[in-house]
Amino acid sequence: MTLVLLLGDQLSDGLSALQTADPAQDIVVMAEVADEASYVPHHPKKIAFTFAAMRKFASHLRDKGWRVAYTALDDPQNAGSIPGELLRRAEEFATSQVIATQPGEWRLISALEEMPLDISIQPDDRFLCSHKEFAGWAEGRKVLRMEYFYREMRRKTGLLMDGDKPEGGKWNYDHDNRKPASADLFRKGPPQARGDDVVEAVLDLVEDRFGDNFGVLRPFHFQTDRAGALRALDHFIDHALPDFGAYQDAMLEGDPYLYHAVIGLYLNAGLLAPLEVCEKAEKAYHDGHAPLNSVEGFIRQIIGWREYIRGIYFREGPDYPRRNALNHQRKLPAFYWGAKTHMNCMAQAIGQTRDLAYAHHIQRLMVTGNFALLAGINPAHVHEWYLAVYADAYEWVEAPNTVGMSQFADGGIVASKPYVSSGAYIDRMSDYCGNCHYKVRDKTGDRACPFNLLYWHFLIRHRDRFQGNPRMAQMYRTFDRMDAARRDQVLADAEDFLQRMARGDLV
Ligand code: FAD
Ligand code: DLZ
Ligand code: SF4
Fold first, then answer.
1. Which of 10, 353, 432, 504 is most deeply buried (CB count within 10 A of its CB)?
2. pLDDT value at position 185?
3. Residues within a 6 A CB radius of ligand 1
4. What percentage of residues in the chain have a pLDDT greater than 90?
């Protein structure tokens, strides 16, 4: 008899460990454990989503004939960690044989490898690109650009292909996208799941044990099983996909979802599979329901970015989350954890993160990420924050997005140049600046937008590294053309802002 380990983000019928096992003899081991629930201070909604989805998946497996040894967090026997629970179950069922699917985090992979049990770790084949395939693609390339990887994935899957040519003649339709959105339209947003007994019991448990973590637990409207996740996907395809492309970079106060899918948490937990999601989107294009720029843009996020990011995480190795190429050492300011700030864009992005465990890509990249990079925050702290606060956050996907794409701490593996901008970008893509204490057009002075000040501070403190980058040279020329007194003033104001922020003043 063999134990089949099933983690909280492995809730898929087709999981490799389940495929290898035999329901007539083997026992599935699932456990809600303190270690997993607290390696970062997860948002309470994320913990509730994980536990509720785990409990429902365990029932689903039992209905299919599996024996499941499930440990709830408040079980007095709970050993508190995945290895601890495996050992306990191994003793209980008198076996040392374990099958697992490779976890999505180096921490757990090494914990399993070090166990005194006979563990067979199967590849996680819920992705389109295996580690070997990614290594083959990366082999011999000087730079690993997502765009070229993406084309391989299009060819491999046949998605949006017209023979061996891309549908419509182009691989990428981003130049039709990036429009600001208008606040006066009604948008449906994702469907709101109603609670049930399983969810209510989990919410009480999470409130009791993790109620002090950053983040609002109730109301809780995430889907927690595959049927619900499929409903959320269909709802997105029907109501939002047609406008996804055009408005994917837009940000609006009071409209957290715009035309985004809000399915990252379901994909990453295993309730949805990447190919089925893309095939539904492709069908919407062929049925004339959604335009090519939207469908191509959406499919690129999933078979391009998501797979590429995972490839980078496993290729770069366990030290990746700790990299700090720009040697940034400042502490993460308290306003990331909910303290007040005068910066409206930050208050909006962080406020909705606190309430919903969700922010869309541009809020993560160009508001909270941009600020941390400009201000020189230690990327390890930034990484911890992103891993904690989003319902879709697991290290394999969060770390390359944060440490690589957003903080440039990998020295330019994921991003060819840092994603930094002044307030002008945020003003163009959102309605945040109109309601802000700061003035987005001011470049110096008390009310100057901090993104404007810090933008120059960042470029100047990293001049040696970035001046030679052809895509950044223009920025340095612009700075050098300012008169000397103004240049000094901008940098002095930026320095003053950073000092006030470090003291914990309200900024
Ligand atoms: P949509 O915008 O509707 O996109 C559809 C899907 O495409 C997403 O659900 C996701 O599965 C995929 N996708 C889009 N962009 C990316 C990307 N860059 N990397 C991987 N998949 C992508 N995504 C996570 O899944 N988990 C994370 O922990 C995470 N952390 C991030 C941290 C930072 C600093 C940044 C800049 C991005 C991060 N992302 C992360 C990527 C992206 O922001 C989220 O996938 C997306 O916002 C999820 O919302 P959605 O489902 O509405 O996505
Ligand atoms: C995120 C999470 C949480 C909050 N809790 C558990 C848990 O109690 N038990 C479990 O098996 N998995 C949990 N997870 C998901 C794991 O942290 C995830 O499997 C690893 O980080 C690898 O991606
Ligand atoms: Fe953000 Fe600056 Fe705009 Fe205020 S003025 S919302 S700080 S970009």
1. 353
2. 80
3. 260-264, 267-268, 301-302, 305-306, 309, 360-361, 364-365, 369, 386, 390, 392-393, 397-398, 401-402, 405-406
4. 97
Q: Is the pTM of this model over 0.90?
A: yes
Domain with CATH 3.40.50.620 in the chain: 3-122
Q: Do you know the residue count of the chain?
A: 507
Q: Ligand 3: which atom is nearest the Cα of residue 348?
A: 6
Around Cβ 106, how many Cβ atoms within 10 Å? 18
Whole-angstrom distance, CA of residue 387 vs CA of residue 35: 15
CATH architecture group of domain 3-122: 3-Layer(aba) Sandwich (3.40)
Distance set, CA 5 to CA 30, 96, 123, 199 (Å): 6, 12, 13, 23
Distance (Å, whole) CA 381 – CA 378: 6
Do the beta carbons of residue 449 and residue 440 sit within 8 Å? yes
State the ligand closest to the CA atom of 454.
Answer: 3
Which position has the token pair 């339209």? 185
Distance CA 213, CA 204 (A): 14
Residues 6+ apart with CB under 8 A from 126: 12, 14, 15, 270, 273, 274
Ligand 3 centroid from CA 440, angstroms: 6
**Cα 378 from chain centroid (whole Å):** 19
**Which is nearest to 49 in space by CA: 358, 386, 259?**
358
Question: Out of 1.10.579.10, 3.30.70.660, 3.40.50.1980, 3.40.50.620, which CATH number does the structure's domain 334-503 have?
Answer: 1.10.579.10
- H or E, element range at 281: helix 274-286
Q: Domain 131-189+240-313: give its CATH code.
A: 1.25.40.80
Q: How confident is the model at residue 60 (pLDDT cuts 50, 70, 90)?
A: very high
Tens-place pLDDT, residues 340-365: 999 999 999 999 999 999 999 999 99
pLDDT at 98: 98
Query: Where exactly does CATH 1.25.40.80 map onto the chain?
Result: 131-189+240-313
Q: Where in the chain is the domain with CATH 1.10.579.10?
A: 334-503
Closest to 262 in 3D by CA, of 184, 363, 336, 347: 363
- Per DSSP, the three-state class of 363 is helix
Question: Hey, what are 462's tokens?
Answer: 């990293």
Phi-psi region of 189 (alpha: psi -120 to 50; beta: other; left: phi over 0): left
Q: pLDDT tens, 127-167? A: 999 999 999 999 999 999 999 999 999 999 999 999 999 99
Structure tokens at 398: 């969060």
Collapsing DSSP to helix, strand or coil, 298 comes out as: helix
What pLDDT score was predicted for residue 471? 93
Going by DSSP bridges, is the β-strand pair 161-162/97-101 parallel, antiparallel, or unpaired?
Answer: unpaired
**Best of 50, 110, 309, 392 to mutate for ligand 2, by most ligand atoms within 8 A of CB?**
50
